[in-house]
Amino acid sequence: MINENTVIKKTSALYTKYGIKSVSIDDVSFMLGISKKTIYEIIENKNELISRVVENNLDVFYTKVLQKIENENDILMTLCLVYSTVIREVKKINPSYVHDLKKYHPLQYSKIIQFRDQKIYKIIESWITKGVAAGIFRDDLDLPLVFQNQIQKISALIYNLEYDFTEPLTGQAAYMLILNDIRGITTLKGHEIFDQNYNFFLQLK
């Protein structure tokens, strides 16, 4: 029996692999082995389906990040785990998925931006604040600016950006750049700890 959850998960798999514009309801119904009519009996319309897919994807994404750090108490390790997990999950998504949301479904795209700027930011803010208190990070940091600087590397992956002097950024390169950013906000104490564990942090990707 096909239920709402199955429709959302199967549609999500298609959207994140091929993009939204490239996937029709006919494609979804074929994959599920049911008719379009049956789909619309479960989900009101395509816009509602896209909304549910985006919300489901963000919930799954957030759960994976939290699960990765739930038993971790080390500040530097936690930040590295958050970013390595975010990059790993982003790399699974066809850039067309985000492009299509931004161009054709701005309301749904805004959910991704809100998720990034609220939920992911709060995780990073919390652990950097702990790091400041522990003397690992400098106490003169502009946290929103620090986050923006680090998240731009991930945005380059999402939008498949190319620069004049290089090929599109790889996940490994983005992670290494973020590690460099983290090192850059450390105190002398934090810098020493970071460098002692750098090779281990690098393997998390």
Question: Would you give an account of this structure?
Answer:
The protein is an all-alpha fold. It has 10 helices and no strands. The longest helix is centred in the middle third of the chain and has 28 residues, at about 105-135. The mean pLDDT is about 95.
Oligomer: single chain
- Cα separation of the termini: 39 Å
Percentage of β-strand residues: under 5%
What is the count of DSSP helices, taking H or I runs of 4+ residues? 10
Which word captures the global form?
elongated
Spans of at least 5 consecutive residues whose pLDDT stays below 50 are: none
Number of beta-strand segments: 0
Give the class from helix and strand content and strand pairing: mainly alpha
Largest sheet: none
Mean pLDDT across residues: 93
Radius of gyration: 19 Å
Q: What is the string of helix and strand elements?
A: HHHHHHHHHH
The percent range for helix content is over 70%
